[in-house]
Write a structure and sequence with these properties.
Length: about 220
């Protein structure tokens, strides 16, 4: 089963994708994570993407589709893919269909995390990640059990994203509204779009998603 998580920055896509990896053995494909890795290692793609990401704009469709294409062949297919932050434009949605069809696969569910826009800046401003195991946390909504120590790997160091500031988040939100939200219309004829309330707590969101996946005929 392959699913797409859709939502504005801070909606909870990465958090829920991590749960699907842990609970269902799915493979998370996050174009944001892939691009940040490219920026870190200074590859050609990374150099091109860096300034665009800092501005909160979208990296070109060709670059992100190529990143996804590489991973579809390399990763284990056992539990299916959870696409986190991809596709973000109609051209990417179309490219994904082509990539999956040529491998006899398809998108089974598009799950939209609905959130009030006024909480997104808080969600993103409080976000931090374990540098060792990449577990995601939040200053107020999901702090570590022991301050300064990762719950999962006991690692002592954490990082915050440089694009998680208010001004960039506002640009990212406007990109979401104008380019990403319209992809739901692209999937509408297939009747695979489902909305989940992203304002309830993290476990409750996971339960709603599980209910959708478990009712798959
Ligand atoms: P996205 O990948 O959609 O940008 P994240 O999963 O990184 O969003 O979540 C953004 C921040 O909000 C993280 O710090 C995360 O711990 C927190 N968070 C995620 N889901 C919820 C929720 N349902 N309630 C409260 N905080 C949440
Ligand atoms: P968030 O989890 O907050 O929604 P991401 O980590 O998914 O953010 O993305 C961070 C940035 O990386 C985006 O603002 C954009 O510049 C770039 N990016 C990630 N995925 C894509 C994509 N599918 N298409 C274009 N740009 C992308
Ligand atoms: Zn950790």
């Amino acid at each position: 089963m392959n699913i797409i998580l859709v939502g504005p920055p801070g909606a909870g896509k990465g958090t829920q994708a991590q749960r699907l990896v842990d609970n269902r053995g799915m493979v998370q494909l996050s174009t944001g994570d892939m691009l940040r890795a490219a920026v870190k290692c200074g590859s050609r793609v990374g150099v091109q993407a860096q300034t665009v990401m800092e501005r909160g704009e979208l990296v070109s469709d060709d670059i992100v589709a190529a990143l996804i294409g590489e991973r579809l062949d390399n990763d284990q297919l056992s539990g299916g893919f959870v696409f986190d932050g991809f596709p973000r434009t109609q051209a990417q949605a179309c490219a994904l269909d082509v990539l999956l069809h040529s491998r006899d696969r398809k998108v089974d569910h598009v799950i939209v995390l609905d959130v009030d826009e006024d909480i997104l800046v808080d969600r993103v401003a409080g976000r931090f990640t374990c540098t060792q195991c990449k577990a995601g946390y939040h200053d107020n909504f999901k702090p570590t059990t022991t301050p300064g120590v990762c719950d999962q790997c006991k690692g002592p160091t954490f990082s915050r994203r440089s694009d998680d500031n208010e001004e960039t988040v506002r640009n990212r939100l406007s990109e979401y509204r104008s380019k990403t939200a319209p992809i739901l219309a692209y999937y509408a004829p297939e009747r695979i779009v489902e909305h989940v309330d992203g304002m309830i707590d993290i476990d409750a969101v996971s339960n709603r998603i599980a209910a959708i996946l478990d009712h798959d005929p």
